[in-house]
Amino acid sequence: MDSKRFESAAGTHLRGDETAVKILVAGHFGVGKTTYVKTLSAIRPLLTEELMTTASEGTDDLSGVPGKTTTTVAMDFGRLNLSEDLVLYLFGAPGQERFWSVVADLSRGALGALVLADTRKLGDSYPVLGLMEDLGLPYAVAVNLFDGAPTYELPQLRDAMDLAPETPLVICDARDHASAKNALVELVTHLLTLTPEPAR
């Protein structure tokens, strides 16, 4: 079904008068960033997944994702028309700290970031949130609900992640297009509040 979606979108081209915005999709290892980009992209996404080897044993925590055999080593890329005039370029970043220089490079020119979190490993999100703060990148947080993962009320999650009151926090399913898109709408709405219209 995905291939049909990509094939039908392959013939679509930008008109040239759209507003294009770069968005970083960040989060810790195994939180679902590649799935998120694949779910939303209207074009065939560019993925840089590689098979995990024994070299990563003891480094990459596979708890909660026992079937995971690949990891992003550079970036994922996809494109989504959020409206007729607004195009989002999605750059999925690798989640391991050893790739944070790559994340910093990918953040250049980005208007904001969507940080995915997992309630089974909420603590793994803290360094990613800190990195976004260090980079000065506005962000929203989307808690990706994995099957069987514990659920919490949003105020509990906000407290646990020590999020500022103005930072958007939503629950999403990275596998579901409407749910994943809603998280981006929350982020873009937030970014618009940070960018006042120019004086006339």
From TrEMBL:
InterPro entries registered for this protein in UniProt: Gliding_Motility_GTPase, Gpn, P-loop_NTPase
Pfam families: ATP_bind_1
Signal peptide: none
Recorded GO MF terms: GTP binding; hydrolase activity
Swiss-Prot/TrEMBL keywords: GTP-binding, Hydrolase, Nucleotide-binding
Entry similarity comment: Belongs to the GPN-loop GTPase family.
PANTHER family, sorted: ATP/GTP-BINDING PROTEIN-RELATED, GLIDING MOTILITY PROTEIN MGLA
Record-given protein name: ATP/GTP-binding protein
Lineage, uppermost ranks: Bacteria, Bacillati, Actinomycetota, Actinomycetes, Kitasatosporales
